[in-house]
Amino acid sequence: MVKVFISALLGLASLQGVLAAPKAYPEVIPGPGLPSLAELDVTSAQLYEMGVPKELSERDQALDKRYTGKCGPAEGAYTNVNDIIGCYNYLRLLGTQSCAAGRNTVMCTVGQANVYGSALNGQTSSACRDVAAGVLWTINSCTRADQSCAGSQAANGNGNLIVSSVNVTW
User: Fold this and answer.
1) pLDDT tens-digit map of 83-118
2) Strand 79-80 and strand 113-119: pairing?
3) Which residues constitute the signal peptide according to the record (predicted)?
4) Residues 87, 113: contact at Cβ < 8 Å?
């Protein structure tokens, strides 16, 4: 009787594993000219599951000195912070790869979030990890209680490259 009970219990446990659907994540879509997820050997799920550092590093604290970061600028700009985090992790993973921007150059789209760069003077570029630092400032400074987020900040070390994290409809 105990053997039958244990077998039934093990059967239910394995059935639960089969029936449990994997968590679905929106697709991380790199901007034009940036590497695909396949080229980086990473998935959208992995980018979401990386999470986000709690605070800006000391190296990134200088962001505020070149450009005054802004939240919003309006209700319609806000989107789910987790989608912005997916873009943050993608850009951070690119490291020293160049992220170039002209006027409103999309660098990453995830779900309802766009991260784009805007050069204040023509064309500019920064290491993608420095663009990610601007995104992280927005995540840390502009996320509301309902987990919506929107804002802009300069790329680390480049006050000419403004990085905006906003709703795709904005």
Assistant:
1) 999 999 999 999 999 999 999 999 999 999 999 999
2) unpaired
3) 1-20
4) yes
